[in-house]
Design goal:
Elements lengths: L5 H16 L16 E5 L6 H12 L3 E2 L9 E17 L5 E16 L2 E16 L5 H28 L11
Parallel strand pairs: 1-2, 1-3
Antiparallel strand pairs: 3-4, 4-5
Helix pairs in contact: 2-3
Length: 174
């Protein structure tokens, strides 16, 4: 006679081994190369949506972030440009804005041990949204949410680029 939880725990263990054996990963988790085990993020804006999202993604991937270390062997992610710009797309007959466009721009590079792993790359994401004077506070909140979503999309782009370095050693140029 088996104890009552033995069959259940065996089934859970079997399912877990099947899932891990097929290469399953939680969405958003990206395996990074060993050369990115310790990273410093070089940026002038540590409050941006992109910076906050990148820190979270790197830590979720198991990377240790050392902001105060200037060690040559530490990989450095240089955030050259990180900004969002809003512009008016359409106006009503009363010359009131009715649709805006939000552009999030990111330019970054990665270096380690004095070698450039990723040359400076620039990425732009653009989304438009409607505008209403009568719902100005709601539309300002919508813009903030949209800006954060664009920043998170750019974090995903950067994490995929970092994961692509897995074939390169820390001293080679990509």
């Amino acid at each position: 006679m088996k104890p009552p939880g033995t069959t259940l725990s065996a089934a859970v263990l079997m399912v877990a081994s099947l899932i891990s054996g097929c290469g399953f990963r939680l969405q958003g988790s990206v395996p990074l190369p060993q050369s990115l085990a310790v990273v410093r993020i070089d940026t002038s804006d540590t409050q941006s949506d992109f910076y906050v999202g990148l820190r979270k993604a790197l830590m979720a991937a198991g990377t240790r972030i050392e902001d105060n270390v200037k060690d040559e062997s530490t990989a450095v992610i240089h955030i050259i440009a990180d900004s969002s710009v809003e512009r008016i797309l359409t106006v009503s007959t009363l010359n009131v804005p009715t649709e805006n466009e939000l552009t999030y721009t990111l330019k970054f590079s990665v270096s380690s041990s004095g070698h450039e792993l990723i040359a400076p790359e620039e990425h732009h994401l653009i989304r438009d949204y409607s505008y209403s004077e009568s719902a100005q506070l709601a539309k300002e909140r919508e813009r903030a949410i949209l800006s954060e979503a664009l920043a998170n999309d750019l974090v995903s782009v950067v994490m995929r680029r970092l994961a692509s370095l897995s074939g390169a050693s820390s001293g080679s140029v990509q």
